[in-house]
Design a protein that fits this description.
The chain is mostly helical. The chain has twelve helices and no strands. It has helices spanning about 5-15, 20-30, 35-45, 50-60, 65-70, 80-90, 100-105, 110-120, 130-150, 155-170, 175-190, 195-205. Helix 11 (about 175-190) packs antiparallel against helix 12. It starts with a helix and ends with a helix. Keywords: Antenna complex, Lyase, Phycobilisome.
Length: about 210
């Protein structure tokens, strides 16, 4: 007999070691149940990266149903939890998370939050946004990613911004030319070789 979601939630709550918690979260995430959303979100606050990765994967698998709870319970004090939640929202790509991702990308003090937001901005499901709002929203995303890709002090954030730009360019043909031009500039001016190589890869993909 398969365990119920309630049983899986209790297993997470009662886990008394890092490995036991990881296994319990993986099992709960695999259930892909909306009833698991609060518990998976709580796990993002734990100091257990493996369990947090499993929780993020579970929330992404649940999809759009997880977005309202994530938005309502974003931890403003725990930047680690905020980074994981941002990663989950970015992975889901729901337009309801767009404003939060934009703000986090350009203003959060935590580079891990900015990195997650930058990646997520390239993953937005634009077909879910009112057609009249798409162009302005994409313009805001491009501006945020342009700023991050050229001005963020952390190379991992600049790298993530290029990933986001590639995603935007794939989804929004109207911005592809501007994105290619920007990536060409990055290839010439970026000091970190890993970031330059990622710009090359994005340029090749957006041919």
């Amino acid at each position: 007999m398969l365990p119920t979601v309630e049983t899986l939630i209790i297993a997470v709550e009662k886990a008394d070691s890092a490995n036991e918690l990881l296994t319990a979260v993986e099992n709960l995430a695999a259930a892909k149940s909306e009833a698991a959303i609060p518990t998976l979100t709580d796990v993002l606050r734990y100091n257990n990266p493996g369990a947090s990765v499993a929780a993020v994967d579970g929330l992404i698998a649940i999809g759009k149903a997880a977005v309202p709870y994530l938005l309502a319970n974003l931890d403003g004090y725990n930047y680690g939890a905020r980074a994981w939640a941002t990663r989950a929202l970015g992975g889901i790509g729901d337009v309801r998370g767009l404003d939060l991702l934009l703000e986090a990308a350009v203003s959060d003090f935590s580079f891990s939050v900015r990195r997650g937001a930058a990646r997520g901005l390239g993953n937005i499901i634009w077909s879910d946004l009112e057609e009249s709002r798409v162009s302005e929203a994409q313009k805001a995303v491009f501006a945020a990613l342009e700023k991050l890709s050229q001005g963020d002090p952390e190379w991992v954030v600049r790298y993530a911004a290029i990933v986001g730009l590639e995603g935007l360019g794939t989804a929004a043909a109207a911005f592809r030319g501007a994105i290619r031009e920007l990536l060409g500039q990055i290839r010439e001016t970026e000091t970190d070789i890993v970031v330059r190589l990622r710009a090359d890869q994005a340029l090749e993909h957006l041919q």
